[in-house]
Amino acid sequence: MTEVCELAPFTFIWTIENFSPMSCSTITSPSFIVGFMRKTKWHLEIKERNEQEGYCCFISRDNDKNKGPRTIEIYFELAVLADDGSVLTAEKGQGIFKKRVSISNSLEMEDSLWQRWMKVSPRGILAIRCKMWKNNASKWMTVRHDLCFARTELRVEEKNFIWSIRNFSSFSHLKDGIKLQPTTNDEPTLTFKSLGDEGQ
C-alpha cells in the first residue's frame, strides 16, 4: 500500500459499550457519510468467524441509491484502541468499492487481542477507529480533516423460566441431550445434558 499521511482526511471512531468477546455474532455500526468522497455512505461490521478463529472487523459501503459514484477506490486503516487511545492492533488496506460491497482486508481480532484488551479496557468499552483516504495520485493532503464519532450500547436480556422434563430418568444417558426450542427465531437453542451415574 502507498504510504499516506498519519492525519487522515476522514476518521470514524466507534465505541461499543458493554462489549465482550461473547457478545453476539454480528455488530453493525451506525452509518456515516464521507463528504470528500462524493458523499458516499459507509459502515463498519464486527463478525464472528467461528469459535476457533474469533472475530474480524471490516469496512462496507452502503447502498447510496442514486447518490455517489458507482465505484470508488479508497485507502483505509482499521484499528482497535485502548482506553487511553493507544493502538492495540491495526490493519491497512485498499480497494475499489461498489455499493453494498465490503472488503476482504479485515482487521483480525483473535484471542490474544482480547486478553490485552481486557487488561487495558476494564470498563468493557471497545473502540474501533477507521481512517479513510481517497485514491488521488497527486494529492494525499487536504485542508479539512473530518472526525466522526458513533456509540453503540449492548444490553443483556435476562429471562427466567421453569423447565419441567417428563420421564427424566429415561434421558440420563442420552448423548445429544434434550433441546428446548426458543420462542422466537433470534434466540439460541438451549440443550440440557445429564452426566449420568459415573459423572462423565
Could you outline the blueprint of secondary structure elements for this entry?
Layout: E1 10-17, E2 26-28, E3 32-34, E4 40-50, E5 54-61, E6 71-81, E7 87-98, E8 107-109, H1 111-120, E9 126-134, E10 146-153, E11 178-180, E12 190-192
Parallel strand pairs: 1-10
Antiparallel strand pairs: 1-9, 2-4, 3-4, 4-5, 5-8, 6-7, 6-9, 11-12
Organism: Caerostris darwini
InterPro entries: TRAF-like
Protein name: MATH domain-containing protein
Please explain how this structure is put together:
This is MATH domain-containing protein. It is a single chain. The chain is mainly beta and 200 residues long. The chain has one helix at residues 111-120; strands at 10-17, 26-28, 32-34, 40-50, 54-61, 71-81, 87-98, 107-109, 126-134, 146-153, 178-180, 190-192. It has a five-stranded mixed sheet with strand order 7-6-9-1-10, with helices on one face. The longest helix has 10 residues, at 111-120.
